[in-house]
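Running log. JK asked me to keep both predictions on one page so they can be read side by side. First protein, sequence followed by its tokens:
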Amino acid sequence: MLLSHRRFAALTVATVGSLTLAACGGGGFDSSSSSTSGGAGSSSTTASDTASSSSAPTGVALKMLIASSGDAETNAVKAATDAWGKATGNTVEVTVASDMDQELAQGFAGGNPADVMYMDAGKFATFAKQGSLEDYGDGFTDNDKFFESLRKTFTYDGKQYCVPKDFSALALQINTTMWKDAGLTDSDIPTTWDQLVAVSKKLTEGKVAGLGIGIGIDRLGAFVVQNGGWWLNADNTGGAAADAKVTDALKFVQDNVKAGNFKMSNDLGAGWGGEAFGKQLSAMTIEGNWIAGAMKNDYPDVKYKSVELPAGPAGKGTLMFTQCWGLAADSKNKDAAKDLIKFLTTADQQMKFADAFGVMPSRTDAAETYKAKYPDDAAFVAGGAYGHGPINVPGLTDVVAELNSQLEKMATADIAGATKSFDDNAASAIGG
């Protein structure tokens, strides 16, 4: 899981490039989020029941490396691995990384990596390209039960390397008090871009923007997807940001920023969209399900609800952030590691993780259970069916950072120049 401070600070210019599209998502969430009732063992099915059919080798000692959001996540992962170990006669040593990227790189380079690890969607292809990851995903048990968009996210060079462990997605947050004061009702909840513009104008008053948006392509990309575009071409061999589907989406945002009814978080004096929304500097914002913890902890008096993002000219679209269970190519215990991953990704275990630290399951069957149990998160779960994963091509971190820098001041950004520059830089990086 991504650390909580990365969720909230990831949209600052200093870090958005290095985190690419992985910021704010995919793994666990603050233990105070709306989906944190119950505990790691709250499901009725026991761990020994789930692992009873295991064919794992016995007497194996596995190592696991995770990036945890806090004690709730760490304890839940340890409880799950202990349960699997007890049922199979194996052991799992869980280590919480202090610098995940560095420790992964060191382990792979030294030939002694953890057997199983959290692997971020924006980084996995880099490790896959260098031969550090086992490509076990295509033949994995129940692989078809995971959201297709998430499976594609962890596919590189035609192979699905790993299975997604959970995900997060963007939705639209509405300040219900401001909404009511503006004379709006549930029938006005926007389902199209035109409707989004109309309600944002009604909600804009004084220093309050109708819609506040976090800077960078981690948020702007949602509009791009809704317009049928993406930053790279279909086979990830080159940039496609200069395509009209991308530039028109960015121009749509820019026009509304200039009009004053949309504002970027930095123009509102906030570090991210959730802060602007929590301080009631914007009546709406676009954030992921991690916002629940921030609102509960920092802005408990603000009443709001989350709904699906409005559809664009090309239909519904959102951004998904995720991690997978990576398996080291150098692991000497691959069969046991695969069996552990199988145990950790059952619908039952995914719901235990959801109860313990607020993640959304990556399996469609578990996601339906989650949505029924946590209806306030239904808009986020819905994104699993039509969301787009992050850029997952090796070597583009600096290219994305440069694009984010050029789009920082959205009102005056040279969209044509920024997107052409991205395509040129992407061609060079991918070709190199």
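And the second, directly underneath as requested:
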Amino acid sequence: MQKILKIFDWKTYTFTAIAVIAFSNIVVELFSQTIPNVMITFFRNAGEVVILGSVFLFAIAWLVRARPHNRPKKYDVIVFDVFGKESKIDGIRTQFKTHDVAWSFMKQYKETYPLYNFALVSKQKKQEKPTIFKYI
């Protein structure tokens, strides 16, 4: 009986009880504050990187797309007959400084001369052939 009492002696388990209480406090601290704080910080920083990266990508794409283009300074209207050969109609204006005015005159010419086709072209300095912008 004395051996049984010695097993359940409070002095034996005092160190174990203190160790369990201390260990459980460490586990609670680890899983309730340390790990969540590290994870929250990581994902917050990762979110900032993703947002800033997308902003920079958008800005770069916008700058590349919004770069100044070489706009032609002179537009010509070329007249084509029914067979697709270039021809000339007396009394019509064929040289313009702006695209919108040339397009407007070209639409009016198409209504006035329905058997002809018209092309809005411009030739820039570096090109050998003129570029066709509109064709009706």
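Observation for JK regarding the second prediction: The beta strands are 75-80, 86-87, 95-96, 117-122, 131-135.
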